[in-house]
Amino acid sequence: MKFENIKELINLVSDKGLTRVDIEKDGCKISIRKEKEVLMTSNPEPYVQKPNTSQTVNVNKETVQENDSHKVEVEDENTVTIKSPIVGTFYSAPSPDEDDYVKIGDKVSKGKTLCIIEAMKLMNDIEAEVSGEIVDVLVENEEIVEYNQPLFKIRP
User: Fold this and answer.
1) Could you tell me the pTM of the whole model?
2) Is pLDDT above 60 for 79?
3) Shared-domain flag, residues 71 and 117
4) CATH number for the domain including 138?
5) For residues 30 and 75, what is the distance between their CA atoms, to the nearest angstrom?
6) Is residue 76 part of a domain?
7) In this structure, are 90 and 146 located in the same domain?
8) For residues 19-38, b (16+ Cβ closer than 10 Å) or e, as one string?
9) In a domain, 135, yes or no
10) Distance between CA 143 and CA 62 in Å, rounded?
C-alpha cells in the first residue's frame, strides 16, 4: 500500500468520526485507531493537602470535610452531596462488564465504594462519607468530572 493511500485512510477516519479501521490487503495489515478527544480544564485554585481534621456537620448549605479526601455538602436536612476530590474520568463500575457500584435506591454504608475516578492512569475509589440511600447519581459513566463537582446525593 502506498503512503498516499494510508494518508487518505487516516483523513477518512478523522473526517467521518470513526474510532477504528482495520484493513488487510496484499499481505499488509493496517490498523488505525482514534482515541476520544478529551477536553481537560484546570481549576485555578491549587490543591493543598491539609492535616487530618475531624468531621463536623452543619445544615443550611455549609461544607463538611473529613481528612480532606472529598467534600460533602449538606443541602438540606434530607440529602448529602458527595463531590469529586479530583479532576478525572468517572467510572460507575469496576470494569465495563460488571454492574455499577451503586444505583438510585441502593442503601450504602459509610466507607462503601460508590465509584472510581481515574486521574493520570491511577484509579481512585470514591467512598460514601455517610450511611444512607442513594437518591441521585449526577454524572454518567466515563464522563470527565471536575474538582468539587457533585457526583451523588445520599439521604442519611
Assistant:
1) 0.53
2) yes
3) yes
4) 2.40.50.100
5) 54
6) yes
7) yes
8) eeeeeeeeeeeeebeeeeee
9) yes
10) 27
Residue 109 and residue 118 in contact, taking contact as beta carbons nearer than 8 Å: no
Which range of residues forms the domain containing residue 25?
3-33
**56 is written with which cell numbers?**
463536623
Residue 55: inside a domain, yes or no?
no
Q: What is the structure's pLDDT at 76?
A: 57
Cβ atoms within 10 Å, residue 90: 21
- The answer to whether the Cα torsion of 74, 137, 144, 113 is positive or negative is positive
Number of CB atoms found within 10 A of residue 77's CB:
9
Euclidean distance between CA atoms 35 and 55, whole angstroms? 41
Q: Are 80 and 25 within one domain? A: no
Q: Are residues 117 and 69 in the same domain?
A: yes
In a domain, 9, yes or no: yes
Domain count, the chain: 2
| E strand map for 2-155 | 20-25, 28-33, 63-66, 70-74, 80-83, 88-91, 107-108, 113-119, 122-127, 132-137, 144-145, 150-155
- What is the pLDDT confidence band of residue 22, given thresholds at 50, 70 and 90? confident
Q: Concatenate the DSSP letters of all residues of 96-137 into one string.
A: TTS--S--TT-EE-TT-EEEEEEETTEEEEEE-SS-EEEEEE
